[in-house]
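Good day; I would like, with your permission, to put a structural problem before you. What I wish to show you is a protein chain and, alongside it, a tokenised description of its three-dimensional fold. I would ask you to consider whether the tokens describe a fold that such a sequence might reasonably adopt. You will find the record immediately after this paragraph:
***
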Amino acid sequence: MTTSSDSSETSASFLPGERGELLRALAEQRELLLLTVRGITDVQAAQRTTVSELTLGGIVKHMARGGLVWTQILVEADGELPDGMLDTGQYRMTEEETLQGLLELYATAARAVEDAVSALPDLDRSVPLPRTPWSPPETVHWPVRRILLHLIRETAQHAGHADIIREALDGANTTAQR
């Protein structure tokens, strides 16, 4: 079966079994997010259109930074807090940033996640999560599978936010753009 996201899939998403299916689901959610920023300018990417502080550029930046952070958590598996994980600036597109630059960073992050997951021996591998202000006192461990499911959920949630922001910006939505 051919879908609109087939052309954007990487070799990692063609892996067999559960690993490939999870990476493919993540790639499909990424594609939905990318649809929302197709054809917009840097000014539009930085524009707030709702009462939320979120912008399309800010969402792309956050998703890119999140992908890189989660890759570090997966690869290092040391429970250390990655640099920038709690930086609230990751949610805002600055005047110096371009949407194209943020999209390139997002593509780099997507490849990093897929490469890291492809290289792991199995999805049951336990990974210690970094301690954050909202963490319980004991170290929490997640299997790689749960981290992938978290990334899928996070991407889907922000793709929905982006769709609302884009629709308020100019009436476009992912359903009409597919």
Observations:
- The longest strand covers residues 126-128.
